Amino acid sequence: MAEHSGRPERVYRAPCPGCGAPVEFQSAQSTHAVCGYCQSIVVREGEVLKRIGKMAELFDDHSPLQLGASGRIDGKPFTLVGRLQYQYGEGVWTEWVALFDDGTRAWLAEDNGAYVFSRPVTATQALPAASGFAVGTIVRVGGQPYTVASNQTVSLRSAQGELPKLPPLGAPFAVVELRGVDRAEVLSIDYSPQLSDPKAAPELSRGQPVALEDLSFSGLKDESAKDEQGRQFACPNCGAPVSVQLEQSKSVTCPNCKSLIDLSQGIGGELRHATQDEPVRPLIALGTVGVLDGVHWQVVGFQHRMGQEPGDDESFGWEEYLLYNRKKGFSFLVDATDGWSLVAPLTGAPSVSSDRRRATWQGKSYTLTSAYRATTTYVLGEFYWQVQRGQQTENRDYAAGDQLLSSEQSGPELTWSGGRRLPADAVARAFGLEDKKALLARSDAQPFSADAGVSLRTVIIVFMLLLLLALLLSRCSDCDPNTQNCATSSTSTRSSGGSFGGYSSGGGHK
What we know:
Residues 66-210, 286-423 form the DUF4178 domain. By secondary structure, this protein is mainly β. The chain is built from 4 helices and 31 strands. Among the domains are: 66-215, no CATH class; 278-426 and 496-505, no CATH class.
C-alpha cells in the first residue's frame, strides 16, 4: 500500500484581497492567514477572504524549519503550515503550526534551545486568571501536579502561513507555563484574545520534549546554504566585524572589544551592547570540539558567574561553557571549585519537599547542597537567549552522588537543569587538553596514595610541603573570584560548585 503523502484531500485557495496572490488553507480549522507576498492579514468568511490588516516582517532566526516541511511523530505524518513569533522580556520565540492528515493541529515550539511538540487539550476545570499562578508553586490541573515555571506577558510580533488563532498584533497578554512534577511534560495556558473573539477562553496545550532528528523531517532548509549565508554586521561599539554562526543566537560578543551585543530584536534593528573589561579567559577555547558520551560538542559560549550565600559576606566564582550539537541541541559544561559537570535543562520539574531540602526526579532522591544568589559577570561567544551582564538568579543545588539537579529563578521564570559530575581527566581527553591536566584539576581529584614504588619518607616530605603550601595560600591568596574559579569564603561548604545550567539556559517555552 502506498504511503500517504501527508497532504489533505481538499485544499481551499482564494486570491489575496490585498495583492491578488493565491492564499491557501489546508485546514478547515484555520480562520486566518498571512499572505506570503504582501503580508496582508486575511480572515476567511465562508468562501471569501477579507483583509483586516498587515503583518510585520518576520524576525529572521535562521531556523532550519520552514512552511511546507513535513515530519512524523508517533507514526503520524504532519506538515508545518503556519508560524507565529512572540515577543517577551528576554527576546523572541517561535511556534510552528503542525497539521495532521486527519485535520487536527499541534504546535512545534522552541524550548531551552531544543523543541517541544504540543497538542491542544480541553480543560476539565475552570482555569483561574493568569495572576492566580505564582511562579514556583505547585498546582493541579486535570488531577495532575505541575510546577508553575513561567508567567510571562507577551505579544504577537509577526506571523506567517495559515493559523487556527491570531492574537491582535502587538497587544500584550499572558502565557503561563506549567512543568509536570517528576515527569517530562509541559502544560501551556495561552490567555491571548483573538481577532475573531476578543473574549475567547484560555487555550490549553500539553507538550513533550522532542529532537528534530526524531521527527523524520523532510523539506527543511538547505543547511549548507544557511551556513554560507551566515550573519555579519559591524559592532555597535568599535565597528569591528561580528559574525553570528548559530541560527538560535540571541546574544553575541564582539571578538575585538568583547562588548556583549543583544540580538534579540534582530540584526536589522538597533543593537544594544555593554562593554566588558574583566580579563577572563576560558580554559577551553571557543570553537573547540570535544567528544562526550559519543556526542561531538562545540564550545560556542562562555560565562563567568559569581555566587553569594545568604548571610555570607564572601563570594565564589565558577564558569559555564555552552556546548552545541546540531542534533542534540545545547548542554552546559560547568567548571566549579569542586569539579566539572555536564548538565542540560529539564523539560519537567522535580518534586520538592515542603522545606525545599530534598528533590525527587525520575525516582531518584537528591539532597540540597547549597542555596545562593548568582550573578553573571562576564560573557564570551554566542547564546540562544538574551544574556546580560548583571543578570541575577536565585539558585538551589541538589546532589545524589554524582547526579546533580539545580533550580534557578528570576522574576517570572523558574527553570530546572540536571546532569552529572565529570572527572577532570575526562574533560581533558574530550577536548584534547591532556597537556593542561594540571589546570583542569579541581578539588574532586583523588587523594594522594603511595604504592610500593614510593618510600614512606617521600610521602612524608610531600605531605609536609603540601601543608606548608596550604598555610601560605591561606594567608596570601591572590585568587580573584571576579575573574577566576575560586572560593573566597574560608567557611564555605558548598558541594555543588555552581549553577548547573538553569536560568542561564534561556528560560522555558521561549
